[in-house]
Amino acid sequence: MNNFLQHCRDLIGERYVLTDIDQQAVYLSEWRQRRKGKACAVLLPANTEQVAGLVKLCSERRIAITPQGGNTGLVFGSIPDSSGAAVLLSLKRLNQVRQVDIDNNTMTVEAGCLLNVIQNTADQHQRLFPLSLASEGSCTIGGNLSTNAGGTAVLRYGNTRELCLGLEVVTAEGHIWNGLRSLRKDNTGYDLRDVFIGAEGTLGIITAAVLKLFPKPTSVVTAFISLDNVENALQLLHLMQRYHADSLTAFELINSCSLELVLQHIPQVSRIFYEKTAYYVLLELSNTDTFDNSSRKLESSIEIAFNQALIRDAAIAQTLSQAANCWKTRESISEAQARQGKNIKHDVSLPISRIAEFVKVCDAALSTAYPGCQLVTFGHLGDGNLHYNVSPPIEISSEIFLEKQCEVNRVVHDLVHQFDGSISAEHGIGELKKDELQRYKSPVELAMMRQIKSALDPHNLMNPGKIF
C-alpha cells in the first residue's frame, strides 16, 4: 500500500494525497452526519490526465475508487464503505470553465465546477444554464450528471441529462474517452454519453461536460398560491400550461406541514398568507416579454382559477425581494426539517395523473400505521417528482422513529410501485436504496444493468456497493 501511495504522490503531489484522518474527515462524512466511511487515501487530482493516471494505478492494484463531487447527495453515493480499503477520488480541483461558445449556445466545463459558478458564467454572457437546486452553491456539475439531477426547472428544460451534449470520461481501466461533442445531432451508434449520466460513478469518472445554454429571460414572474388539495393543484397546473405553455418554468407543490416548519425554523422567511390552507403552489413564468405584460397575463389566468374555485388566494411578487422570499420558502424546507430533527426521506416520481390519488392513499396508510407522524410533502409537481418525507410524531424522538425506516419505506415504495412510479426521481440509488432497487426493478432490467456494469467495470472497482 505504501508503494501505491508513493506512486500517487509522485503523480499528483504529496499535499494532494491525504492520509491523515483529520484531513480526510470532511470527505468521508455524509453532510447530514448519517454515514461515515473510511479510505486508505483521499486523492485530489488537478486535471483529467491525473485522474486517468490514478485510475490506472488503482486498476493495476485492484484498489476500489469512490468518486466524489460536492458531497451533497442524499443516498450515500459518494461515501466509501467502512473497510478503509478504497480510495476516495475528489474532483473538486477540476473546476475550470474551458470554453463558452455563444454562437453554439454551449459551455464546456470540468466536473468539479460548482453549479452556481456555471449559472453565473452563463449569466455574464447573457445566457441561462437552467439547472437550479437548493445546493447549487456547493454541488458540482459532475455530481449533477452522475445522478442526473432534476431541480425546479425540469418542467421546462428537463433533467441534467437533457442539458448535456457531450462528456469526457475516464474509464475503469484509466483510459480517457473524449466525447466532448457540442452537436445537437450525432446519430453514430450507441449514445455512450447517456450510459455514464445517472450511473453514479459506477461505470467511469466524468471529468468534463459540454452543457447547453439558453437565451436569458428578460422577465421572471413569481406567484405563491394557496389551495385546498392536490387535485386542485393539478387542475391549476393544467390551466397554467394551457395559458403559459412556453413560459411556465416551475410549478412547485408545498403542503402546510412543510410551510409551517420553514416559518418555525427559518427566520429569514416571512409568511405570505395569514389564512392557512392545506397546500400551496409556487410557480414561475420566464420569457422575453416585459414584466408588466407577463404579470398581466398571469393575473388573468389566476382570475380564471379563482372563478373555477381552484384556489383560495394568490400573491404575485412585485419586487425581487418578494420573489426571493417565495423561493426561500421552497428551498428551505429540507433545512427546516433538519433543524426539526432527523426524518425519513423519499424522492419519488409518479405519473402526474396519479399523484393526487397516491398522496391521499399514502397519507392515510402512514397516518394509520404511525399515528401523529408528520407528512412533509413538497416537490416538483409539474414533472411528477415528490419529496414525500416523514417526520416522527412530536412525542417520539427522531432516533427511535428512524428505526422504523425500513417499514416506512415499504409502505411508501410499495404504493409508489402500485401507482406505476419510481422510488428515485432525482437523488439516485447510491448505497441507501440498492436493496429497494432489487425489489422493484424487473429481473430483465437488473440483468441488463449488471451486464453493462460487468462490461465497463469488470473488476468492480468503480464506486462498489452503490446501485448493486
TrEMBL record:
<feature type="domain" description="FAD-binding PCMH-type">
    <location>
        <begin position="35"/>
        <end position="216"/>
    </location>
</feature>
<dbReference type="InterPro" id="IPR016164">
    <property type="entry name" value="FAD-linked_Oxase-like_C"/>
</dbReference>
<dbReference type="InterPro" id="IPR036318">
    <property type="entry name" value="FAD-bd_PCMH-like_sf"/>
</dbReference>
<dbReference type="InterPro" id="IPR016171">
    <property type="entry name" value="Vanillyl_alc_oxidase_C-sub2"/>
</dbReference>
<dbReference type="InterPro" id="IPR016167">
    <property type="entry name" value="FAD-bd_PCMH_sub1"/>
</dbReference>
<dbReference type="InterPro" id="IPR051264">
    <property type="entry name" value="FAD-oxidored/transferase_4"/>
</dbReference>
<dbReference type="GO" id="GO:0003824">
    <property type="term" value="F:catalytic activity"/>
</dbReference>
<dbReference type="GO" id="GO:0071949">
    <property type="term" value="F:FAD binding"/>
</dbReference>
<dbReference type="GO" id="GO:0022904">
    <property type="term" value="P:respiratory electron transport chain"/>
</dbReference>
<dbReference type="InterPro" id="IPR016169">
    <property type="entry name" value="FAD-bd_PCMH_sub2"/>
</dbReference>
<dbReference type="Pfam" id="PF02913">
    <property type="entry name" value="FAD-oxidase_C"/>
</dbReference>
<keyword id="KW-0285">Flavoprotein</keyword>
<dbReference type="InterPro" id="IPR004113">
    <property type="entry name" value="FAD-bd_oxidored_4_C"/>
</dbReference>
<comment type="similarity">
    <text>Belongs to the FAD-binding oxidoreductase/transferase type 4 family.</text>
</comment>
<dbReference type="InterPro" id="IPR016166">
    <property type="entry name" value="FAD-bd_PCMH"/>
</dbReference>
<dbReference type="Pfam" id="PF01565">
    <property type="entry name" value="FAD_binding_4"/>
</dbReference>
<dbReference type="InterPro" id="IPR006094">
    <property type="entry name" value="Oxid_FAD_bind_N"/>
</dbReference>
<keyword id="KW-0274">FAD</keyword>
<protein>
    <submittedName>
        <fullName>FAD-binding oxidoreductase</fullName>
    </submittedName>
</protein>
